[in-house]
Design a protein that fits this description.
This protein is of the alpha+beta class and 469 residues long. It is 36% helix and 20% strand. The chain is elongated and about 95 Å long. Keywords: Membrane, Plasmid, Transmembrane, Transmembrane helix.
């Protein structure tokens, strides 16, 4: 009899240098599973040293070829580490002992992992930097560099389903997916409505008149503007009309009840609670369904929009915040989607144009910058309009104001502030700066992806194609 081990066992490890526990009389084979790559690429303050620390686990420093719990790198240096596919705890990004950011696999949605040792986990690219003012494919005027640090971090998963070509529509499969085969017991007295059917028809860009598409795409051009500042273009006017329609739709109930009535601001000093401000309405409250009281506190949700929170600073701030949120809800959200659709149409019009150097006039960063700034201006315009209404109500506190005038004034104020914000944007080139930042960040992430493809071509062969313009 030879001295052959009684048990043969295979142990998997995730990082080089990871210890393996085994029993005596065991023939063990150590298998190194594929790790998860993490790349830090920071460009904020040249010469600064950063530390990356694992709280409950280990990381592998690729440059030092060593398994450690923390590593250091300098600003402008691409720092590449490995972590296990079941990494526990958090990665802490520190500067001078101060935690700048915490990253966990739960935060990235990467808690599950494929048990196959040959399966490559999704990499993580973390970029922190100042706008490098990278230029579009071709531009007529250079832009300045706003020194605003920004942080974006996210994993890079495989190509999502919504980017893949759609599968042919199969009515039988669709019916099986939409049916609910589990029997449902209805409560006593429940009236079951007849089955409703919806017919969905596929549409194509070619089904729309080309003249309409061309008109929408060119509607943001300076030649369609009605003012010397080239701001009130055809698409801009359509967007303002959509915003006004959304405001009337979202507030139609109280507008319908109070449009021909008046209100005034009243201050009452209570014996126990002190000074309080109220909005007092005229007319018979018994005839109303929504605004059923004769007076409301200025902080009441029913009058925040009507009076703009006039009375106190706290109520004014609350009204501005509610108006800002209202731009992203209900009909306001639909109006924003409509505005974004106009942005996309204008961008496609410019994107299809080829410059003298053979490159496109616009790229995807321009679209992201335009949409981002329009969303920010929509919320800010609504907040400023609410503040303006509150100032008018507070100024005219002694007299009675017509609700109808306030409605018209709110819409007019929103249009005015929208125009002013667009004028400021055009003067300081804010949208161009935001687009430049998106472009700069995209280039940083693309460089990191190309680095992964070169260092590990078997795992990341086509990975950089995700970041092609």
């Amino acid at each position: 009899m030879g001295n052959r081990p009684m048990i043969q066992h295979t142990a998997c490890i995730d990082l080089p240098g990871e210890p393996v526990e085994c029993w005596a009389e065991t023939d063990i084979t150590v298998l190194l599973r594929k790790h998860r790559d993490v790349i830090f690429d920071i460009h904020v303050n040249k010469g600064t040293t950063y530390t990356v620390e694992a709280t409950e686990d280990w990381l592998y420093d690729v440059a030092k070829k060593k398994r450690v719990q923390q590593g250091q790198f300098t600003d402008g240096e691409r720092y590449h580490i490995w972590i296990s596919r079941a990494f526990k705890g958090e990665l802490l990004l520190k500067q001078n002992g101060k935690v700048l950011q915490r990253y966990s696999m739960l935060q990235f949605g990467l808690t599950g992992s494929n048990p196959d040792p040959k399966a490559k986990p999704d990499p993580i690219i973390i970029a922190l930097g100042i706008n490098q003012a990278s230029k579009p494919p071709f531009t007529s005027a250079p832009t300045s560099k706003p020194q605003v640090p920004s942080l974006l971090s996210y994993p890079q998963p495989a190509l999502p389903d919504y980017l893949r070509a759609p599968k042919p529509f199969d009515p039988l499969v669709a019916q099986q997916q939409w049916m609910c085969p589990v029997p449902i017991k209805l409560a006593a007295g429940t009236v079951q409505q007849p089955t409703q059917e919806a017919h969905v028809a596929e549409v194509d860009k070619r089904s729309f008149p080309q003249e309409v598409l061309d008109a929408v795409a060119a509607g943001g051009g300076d030649e369609t503007a009605l003012d010397t500042n080239k701001i009130a273009t055809r698409n801009w006017l359509i967007g303002q009309l959509a915003g006004a329609t959304a405001f009337l739709s979202d507030n139609k109930e109280w507008i319908k009840e109070l449009f021909f009535e008046k209100f005034r601001l009243m201050k009452i000093v209570h014996k126990n609670v002190g000074e309080r401000w109220y909005v007092v309405f005229t007319g018979n409250p018994r005839m109303r369904k929504l605004v059923t009281a004769a007076r409301y506190g200025v902080k009441h949700e029913k009058v925040l929009t009507i009076a703009g929170g006039a009375g106190t600073v706290e109520s004014g701030a609350a009204a501005a915040w509610e108006s800002s949120k209202g731009a992203f809800r209900k009909a306001g959200l639909i109006a924003l989607i409509f505005t974004v659709s106009l942005d996309v149409a204008e961008w496609l019009h410019d994107y299809e144009q080829i410059g003298p150097d053979g490159k496109r006039k616009k790229d995807f960063a321009d679209l992201l910058g335009k949409i981002g700034m329009d969303l920010a201006k929509a919320g800010l315009s609504a907040a400023l309009a609410s503040a303006a209404v509150g100032a008018v109500v507070a100024f005219a506190a002694a007299g009675a104001l017509s609700v109808g005038i306030i409605v018209v004034g709110t819409i007019a104020a929103a249009v005015l502030f929208g125009y002013v914000l667009d004028a400021v944007d055009k003067h300081v080139h804010a949208t161009e700066h935001v687009s430049s930042w998106f472009r700069s960040f995209g280039e940083t992430v693309k460089e990191a992806a190309e680095y992964l493809a070169k260092s590990m071509p078997k795992d990341y062969d086509s990975y950089p194609l995700m970041y092609m313009p």
